[in-house]
């Protein structure tokens, strides 16, 4: 007999196996999980596009005319949600690969600067561990291209749009320190 407890996934039980059998560090496990999530996102993007395409063809079917006002409203809401999902999924697609976007925050920071700011916020010294070239190359084949977020200098866009100065990353890390503990 199969119970509900038999079908529940317990990923925390896999962590010791990943560590011993795969010789996988925590960071490598998280990287693998992230890459798996990206693959699933790519499948969802295709599904959303197919659904949207199908929904857009329905008004051209002869039987569409028999729908009452309520059903047409439901159809329009469904199409609206599907189009919105398509737009949002495409916003995160590879169309941004290789593009350069200007930084709009109050300061230019490296990843190491951000790691140090988070460490200061939680009262611990954190170290950024770079991947070696082989690890980076292996991961790059699974990741979409890279877009660069940099520019000639810091822009005032946040303050121009919101009327308030942008917070520094250090301020943000301090405000969200509990998420990193």
Explain the overall architecture.
It is a single chain. With about 180 residues, the chain is mainly alpha-helical. The chain folds into 2 domains: about 10-90; about 95-180, no CATH class. Helix content is about 55%, strand content about 0%. It has 8 helices and 2 strands; from the N terminus they run ααααβααβαα. It has a two-stranded parallel ribbon with strand order 1-2. Helix 5 runs parallel beside helix 8 (about 170-175). It is extended and about 65 Å long. Residues about 140-150 have low confidence and may be disordered.
Overall tally of structural domains: 2
Low-confidence stretches: 141-150
Major sheet: 2 strands, parallel
Question: Helix share of residues?
Answer: 55-70%
Number of helices: 8
Calculate the mean pLDDT score and round it.
77
Termini gap: 41 Å
Structural class by secondary-structure content: mainly alpha
Strand order of the largest sheet: 1-2
Count of DSSP strands: 2
Strand percentage lies at: under 5%
- Shape descriptor reads extended
Taking all Cα atoms into account, the compactness measure Rg is 23 Å
What string, H for helix and E for strand, traces the elements in order? HHHHEHHEHH
């Amino acid at each position: 007999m199969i119970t509900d407890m038999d079908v529940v996934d317990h990923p925390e039980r896999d962590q010791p196996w990943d560590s011993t059998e795969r010789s996988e560090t925590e960071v490598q496990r998280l990287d693998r999980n992230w890459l798996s999530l990206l693959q699933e996102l790519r499948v969802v993007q295709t599904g959303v596009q197919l659904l949207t395409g199908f929904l857009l063809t329905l008004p051209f079917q002869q039987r569409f005319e028999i729908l009452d006002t309520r059903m047409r409203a439901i159809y329009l809401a469904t199409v609206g949600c599907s189009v919105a999902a398509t737009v949002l999924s495409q916003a995160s697609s590879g169309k941004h690969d290789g593009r350069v976007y200007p930084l709009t925050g109050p300061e230019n920071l490296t990843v190491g600067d951000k790691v140090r700011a988070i460490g200061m916020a939680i009262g611990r010294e954190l170290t950024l561990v770079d991947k070696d070239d082989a690890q980076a190359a292996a991961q790059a084949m699974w990741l979409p291209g890279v877009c660069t977020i940099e520019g000639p200098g810091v822009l005032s866009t946040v303050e121009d749009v919101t009327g308030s100065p942008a917070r520094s990353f250090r301020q943000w890390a301090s405000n969200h320190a509990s998420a990193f503990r």
